Records
---
Amino acid sequence: DAKTTQPPSMDCAEGRAANLPCNHSTISGNEYVYWYRQIHSQGPQYIIHGLKNNETNEMASLIITEDRKSSTLILPHATLRDTAVYYCIVRVALYNQGGKLIFGQGTELSVKP
Amino acid sequence: GAVVSQHPSWVICKSGTSVKIECRSLDFQATTMFWYRQFPKQSLMLMATSNEGSKATYEQGVEKDKFLINHASLTLSTLTVTSAHPEDSSFYICSARVDGGVSGELFFGEGSRLTVL
């Protein structure tokens, strides 16, 4: 699976958009970009995933560059409850190859009032 | 989304005893579940893949005789920490993949915090 690079920490003002970057320059053509987050002392929560096209759901938007070497997770209106560690994971579709997820260090997002 | 439940949420035990942690998929079947361990200020580390009706597959460096995994049904996997010692104190998290699911995500339990005295 391709390796990802994320900033260790970021701050965001409450109500503003939080833009979390992820570099995955060695991504292969059949690898997806998955985003999860982990609020302190809880299990990880799925946010969104995508292959090539930008994706949006009720939680966030995922913007993938045309060359697929990087992506950005956007929380449009961050709240204090969005404070968490955000993990960007690149791998083949979860229903292939056993489906296991390998977590990196992630980005610790702090949303401040 | 689908719900994965872990029990107990936290447990304190004496050194040398064994502790069992349960992971249940409440509203879906999961042939495959995964167990992770997380130390403070660190990321999740995959310990093993649990497969219903067969032996678990352990990641490199994880002692299979110390961390016993049983996946006896399509909705239940258990992790038993045998002869626990203080260094086994950690946050244990399970996840499950929906059988037949096409959305691609895994669902995680809330975690079980083990403290070994």
---
Amino acid sequence: DQQVKQNSPSLSVQEGRISILNCDYTNSMFDYFLWYKKYPAEGPTFLISISSIKDKNEDGRFTVFLNKSAKHLSLHIVPSQPGDSAVYFCAARVYGGSQGNLIFGKGTKLSVKP
Amino acid sequence: DAGITQSPRHKVTETGTPVTLRCHQTENHRYMYWYRQDPGHGLRLIHYSYGVKDTDKGEVSDGYSVSRSKTEDFLLTLESATSSQTSVYFCAISESPRTSGSLIAGELFFGEGSRLTVL
């Protein structure tokens, strides 16, 4: 039973346009949501996070939106750049859980075309 | 970059043989984790440690054991490897929120991964 779902395995976007990556979750006890980015042959790296008590968090070109009623979050990248091409993982932490005990989605592969 | 080293980076072994993966950190972080990444599954937590000799199970711990005798080293052992344990294994570290005032909840620093193939 997947608690964190990324239903789009891949996404292709033109350089300069907006990339929107989506994530749905089922567990109401998640207190933080995070996005990790992964290049081939490298470990994932933290990108941005949002607390469950917020609805938006912005960091430069990256914005994460949280809709608790719909149990949905999205990552917006504006403008998209070729260097953003990577696999993006949505992750969630259970309230009261260990700092890094995260539930990950399956990932969405983003391709940004020049 | 966080100082995390995984070894070996690549290993091919046969079913039934024991395998140990090593994670070494130079950051003196309290928490260490072992995740595995498989196509169609994302990353799944195997075991984690919250201090020397303190470990706990994650989501997919069956068939794996861990040990942490020093702050800097976290070992993952497959006592008798099976083909279903063919995967890419990632070590990760994080600090305690009580130690780092600027810590982002859930922020992990990952190693580069160890690719294990069990034939």
